[in-house]
Specification:
This protein is an alpha/beta fold. The protein contains 10 helices and 6 strands; from the N terminus they run E-H-E-H-E-H-E-H-E-H-E-H-H-H-H-H. Strands 2-1-3-4-5-6 form a 6-stranded parallel sheet, with helices on both faces. The radius of gyration is 18 Å and the shape is elongated.
């Protein structure tokens, strides 16, 4: 069985490198490339794709890779999405998994690990990089001390400099709910300020630096 692949990444050099690696596998065929998340969604919807290799961060102002993943996997008979990125934060991992990604791999993975992950995803099984699997297992074992997806979303926006009012508008939450999330975040991280919370989350690898 031939696995038909779509490469979604905004860097031509990265796409060329992936194609060169994947073309060495006899059972892989790269059937398309997409420089934007929107283009990846459109190409996946057109059919003839088994696995999409999806980056998370595209150009400014465009759709995020997690949003594209959700759009692709929402369709009946959709291809599998294997996230291939440089980011291993809790915020990125949770967003991708909740969006329906079948796997999550880092770009520094060796070629044989990438090929194995593609085959695993194509077979309908979960393909997680060891470091990613470890982070998810840690969250499952210590749920009381880990930040929820919503708490991470709020904290990400705090890190971008948004006020509670701005965050409430962005996430369609009341300001009281935003404040409640931040209270929980402070308690879980053992901090007392917004700045300290962002710094601590980044130092723990929960948010991008």
């Amino acid at each position: 069985m031939t696995v038909r692949l779509l490469l979604a990444d905004d860097h031509p050099v990265v796409r060329a490198g992936l194609r060169a690696v994947l073309d060495t596998e006899a059972d892989f065929t790269v059937v398309g490339e997409a420089a934007t998340a929107e283009a990846a969604v459109a190409r996946a919807a057109a059919g003839g794709v088994d696995v999409v290799l999806m980056d998370l961060q595209f150009g400014p102002g465009g759709m995020h890779g997690s949003a594209a993943t959700a759009a692709i996997t929402a369709r009946a008979g959709a291809p599998r999405v294997l996230v291939l990125t440089t980011y291993d934060t809790d915020a990125d991992i949770l967003a991708a998994v909740e969006a329906g990604a079948s796997g999550y791999l880092l770009k520094d993975a060796p070629p044989e690990e990438l090929a194995a992950a593609v085959r695993t995803a194509a077979a309908g099984r979960s393909a997680l990089a060891p470091a990613v699997a470890h982070r998810l297992m840690h969250r499952m074992r210590a749920p009381a001390r880990t930040l929820t997806r919503r708490e991470l979303e709020v904290l990400e926006l705090v890190g971008e400099g948004l006020s509670n009012q701005q965050i409430s508008r962005r996430l369609f939450l009341s300001q009281a709910t935003v404040k409640s999330h931040l209270v929980h975040v402070f308690a879980k991280l053992g901090v007392e300020s917004r700045t300290a919370a962002v710094a601590e989350a980044r130092s723990r690898g929960l948010l991008r630096r």
